[in-house]
Design brief:
- The structure is a single chain.
- The protein has 23 helices and two strands.
- α19 (about 355-370) runs antiparallel to α20 (about 375-380) and α19 runs parallel beside α21.
- β1 and β2 form a beta hairpin.
- The longest helix is centred in the last third of the chain and has 21 residues, at about 385-405.
- It has a two-stranded antiparallel sheet with strand order 1-2.
- The protein has two domains: about 10-70, no CATH class; about 80-115 and about 175-195 and about 245-440, ADP-ribosylglycohydrolase fold (Orthogonal Bundle), CATH 1.10.4080.10.
- With about 450 residues, it is an all-alpha fold.
Length: about 450
C-alpha cells in the first residue's frame, strides 16, 4: 500500500521545502539524502510511485528528526501564540449586527462552490480550460460535464478519481461527501458539545471519535498520526508534518465565523484554537482569515466590506497578509486571464494545496466576482489549484451575502438540500445544519 502524505521518504522532500521556507539551512541534509539515492523533489499527489528500501526509509526518518531539531529563523512578524498574534493586529472593526438569517445561504453556497471544483481538483489551469472548451462550457458558468468530452482530452486531463462519479452535472444527486463539508459539520458538533470555550485537545478527541483516518489529508493526516502517537499540542502540528502551512486548517473554520456574526476577532480566536492542532504560522492565519471572512459575510453587504474586515485578523506583515493583498490588488487591475497569470507567476512555485496561493485566489475571486455567486466561484475554480476548497470558501462568503435565492437555482437545485458525509449520523439536510448554526450564534466582542 502506498499511502499519500504519510511515508517518511515522501514527507522528507516536502519537509526540505517547508524548512527552507522557515529559514532553516537544509543544504547538508538535502545533500545526504540525494547522495544516498533519494529524490528531493516532492511528489505532487503525496506519494512517490515506488516504495523505499528499509534503509532509505530509516534514513528519511532520521533526516526528518534532524530537520525538526533545527530551530526556525526568528519571525516576529509571524508568531504562533495567540497573544503575540493579537499584539500585531489593528483594532477590530465595528461591524453591524446581523439583520437577517444568512446561515442557510452560507451552507448552501459552500456546498455548491465545493461541488463545482470537485471533479477538476489537481487539474492545472490549461487542462480545465481545455475540458471546458471541448464540452462547450467555456467560459465556466455551470457544473462540469463529461458529455461530449473527446477521449484524448479525458486521457490527458483525467477527472479527480474520487469525484467524477458524483460531481459531474449528469450524475449529481445531492452534495457528495467531501472533507470541505465534513470539517464544518465537525466544527458544529464541537461547538454543540463544548461551547465556545473548547480546547485544542477537544478538537483532537473529536477527530478520534468521529473522523475516519482515511478521510484526512496532508497536515491533518500527519496530525492524526501524531495524536495517536500521544504527542501533545502543539507538537501535533510540527512533528514530521511538512504540510503545516498548507490549506487544511483554512477549510475547517467557516462555522466559527457563522456563529460569530460581525465579530471577526472572536471568530479568529476560535479558528486559532482549532488550527494549531495541525498547522503553524500562515497555515493558522489562513484559518483565522477564513473564519473572519465567514463572520463578516453574515453582516456585511458587499464582498469588499467582507475582505476589509477579514484582513484585520491577519498579522499585517505575514506572508498570508501579503498574499491576500496581492490577490485583491490584481483583481482591481486586470481581466481574469491576466489576473490568473499574475497569481501563477507569483505563487506557481508552491504546491497546489499550499495556503498562500489558494488564499490569494480566494481574495482574488471574491474581489473580482463582486458579490455575484457564479462569477465568484467560477474564478476560484479556473485558477486551477485547490479548486474545491477555494471555491467552497468563496461560495460560503457569497452565499451568506446573497442568500439562497441570490445563489441561483442552477447551482442550488442539484444539491437537493442534502450533504453526504463520512461522519457519524450520515447524510445531513442543509436546512438542519443552518438551523443548528443559527442556534449557536452569539454577539459580543472578543478582546
Amino acid at each position: 500500500m502506498r499511502l499519500t502524505w504519510a511515508q517518511p521518504e515522501d514527507l522528507l522532500a516536502h519537509e526540505l521545502v517547508q524548512s527552507a521556507a522557515e529559514g532553516k539551512d537544509v543544504a547538508e541534509i538535502r545533500d545526504r539524502w540525494v547522495a544516498a539515492g533519494g529524490d528531493p523533489v516532492p511528489a505532487v499527489s503525496g506519494a512517490s510511485p515506488d516504495p523505499a528500501t528499509p534503509a532509505m526509509r530509516s534514513l528519511a526518518r532520521t533526516l526528518l528528526d534532524e530537520l525538526d531539531a533545527i530551530a526556525a529563523a526568528p519571525a516576529p512578524e509571524e508568531p504562533d501564540d495567540w497573544e503575540a498574534i493579537l499584539a500585531l493586529l489593528p483594532p477590530a472593526p465595528d461591524l453591524p449586527r446581523p439583520t437577517r438569517e444568512r446561515a442557510l445561504g452560507a451552507w448552501t453556497g459552500r456546498a455548491a462552490g465545493c461541488l463545482l471544483g470537485k471533479p477538476v481538483e489537481k487539474i492545472p489551469r490549461q487542462g480545465i480550460e481545455e475540458i471546458l472548451r471541448a464540452t462547450g462550457r467555456w467560459p465556466l458558468n455551470r457544473y462540469f460535464t463529461a458529455v461530449g468530452l473527446p477521449r484524448d482530452v479525458a486521457e490527458r486531463w483525467p477527472w479527480n478519481r474520487r469525484s467524477a462519479g458524483t460531481s459531474l452535472e449528469e450524475n449529481i444527486a445531492g452534495m457528495p461527501e467531501d472533507d470541505d463539508l465534513n470539517y464544518p459539520m465537525l466544527a458544529l458538533s464541537l461547538l454543540e458539545r463544548h461551547g465556545r470555550a473548547f480546547t485544542t485537545d477537544d478538537v483532537a478527541q473529536l477527530w478520534l471519535d468521529n473522523l475516519p483516518a482515511g478521510r484526512v489529508f496532508t497536515a491533518e493526516r500527519a496530525a492524526y498520526r501524531n495524536i495517536l502517537d500521544a504527542r501533545p499540542v502543539p507538537g501535533t502540528a510540527t512533528h514530521h508534518n511538512p504540510f503545516r502551512e498548507w490549506i487544511g486548517a483554512l477549510i475547517r473554520t467557516d462555522v466559527f465565523g457563522w456563529v460569530s456574526p460581525g465579530d471577526v476577532r472572536a471568530a479568529a480566536r476560535l479558528a486559532w484554537t482549532d488550527a494549531r492542532l495541525s498547522h503553524t504560522r500562515n497555515g493558522v492565519y489562513g484559518a483565522m482569515w477564513a473564519a473572519a471572512l465567514a463572520s463578516a459575510a453574515m453582516v456585511c453587504d458587499s464582498a469588499e466590506e467582507v475582505l476589509d474586515a477579514a484582513e484585520s485578523v491577519v498579522p499585517p506583515d505575514s506572508r498570508l497578509a501579503r498574499a491576500v493583498r496581492f490577490g485583491r490588488a490584481v483583481a482591481a487591475e486586470s481581466d481574469v486571464r491576466t489576473g490568473l497569470d499574475r497569481l501563477h507567476a507569483e505563487y506557481g512555485h508552491l504546491h497546489w494545496v499550499h495556503v498562500l496561493n489558494n488564499a490569494a485566489v480566494i481574495a482574488y475571486a471574491l474581489a473580482k466576482g463582486q458579490g455575484e455567486f457564479g462569477p465568484s466561484v467560477s474564478v476560484a475554480v479556473l485558477a486551477g489549484w485547490d479548486t474545491d476548497s477555494a471555491a467552497a470558501t468563496v461560495g460560503g462568503v457569497v452565499g451568506a451575502l446573497r442568500g439562497v435565492e441570490g445563489i441561483g437555482e442552477q447551482w442550488t437545485a442539484p444539491l437537493d438540500g442534502r450533504i453526504a458525509t463520512s461522519l457519524p449520523g450520515g447524510e445531513q439536510r442543509i436546512a438542519d445544519l443552518a438551523e443548528r448554526t443559527a442556534a449557536l450564534s452569539t454577539g459580543g466582542k472578543a478582546r
